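Can anyone check this?
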Amino acid sequence: MTVFDEFQKHYRQRDLSAQQWKESGGKVVGYFCDNVPEEFISAAGFFPLRLSGDPNGDTAKVGNYSEEGNVFSREGFVASMLHMLQNGRYDYIDYLIIPHARDSVHRLYPTLLRRKESHPAMNLPELFYLDNLHTSFFTAGVYNNKRWLQLKTQLEEWSGKPMGNDKLAQAIAISNESKSLLKKLAALRASDPPRVSGVEALTIIGTSMFMPKEEHNSLLKKYLTDAEQLPAKSGVRLFVEGSPLDHLQFYDIVESCGATIVAEDNCWGNRYSDVSINTNLDPTEAVMERYNNKSPCTRMYPLNRRVEYCLESALAAKPQGVIFNVFLFDEMQAWETPDEIKVLKENGIPSLYLKDQPYRIAEPEALKQRIAEFIQSI
């Protein structure tokens, strides 16, 4: 088995490491989105697992779970995660952190809370709601810091012991090493010619959220050792912008059309690792500073920060074109897309806007044709 085969195994079996951790007597803390400090979770002695959906799973019954079912059914990946939580797929999770992220994510908290109360026999984890503001203003940082500290206190209560600076510093060092290695992976994708495909990169980045970080770092070091000798990738260089992609369906289709995805602006891709933690600060302050000032996602204000970040990320990867893949009812992503397309065009980069896309790609051939026509036009 090659190193990449190991990555693929953990990408397909996303609960493998968490289940092994659980079987050895440890506890698992699940979380949504990339704005939850996983370093706090690790330092508290838990296994941090970012929840993801299943595009091949059943979400048809989500609307029956609560009066808010229509909200979840509008965003397929959130609907999928809700369904998995309630059908037992995530029954090994002990605690679940739900952040104030996109509307459909933060509404999971009251829905699951009511579900626990009305169906106590259902094996749902203990919940914690992590509130935060969606701006980079000073006052927002002050408010968010109080919320980060509440999370830290809750994790200490769950673990039954204080989170020492030594443990947190160690978690930060491991996390920073992961980010550094993933940046090297990003550089290989953006090189000319690329040495890593978009599918390969998304697999490796994703597994860093499903495996123990130290184990993932060790594998990635081995992978990068001979990366310069990897076969060069051919085809049109593309950048992907759009809704969160926690699966490979879209990248598989794009790269089957004769392209290589050299970068993306996505919390399941390069954006996950592009800001490290400042080790010159007190460990707790350093974690809070990082999560207050990390690269902006679509929920952040002001809009121009998102537009500038999209342009900077695209220019750094030197793509020949950009594809916007925006899910059906993803209003946040749809709101910023026209401005991003405009600024990319001003910089000579053509775009294809795929709007109202389903989470599960039911008609791949039709989508493939649109993408192939765009690639041929470049």
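Reply from J.R.: I decoded it. The mean pLDDT is 93.
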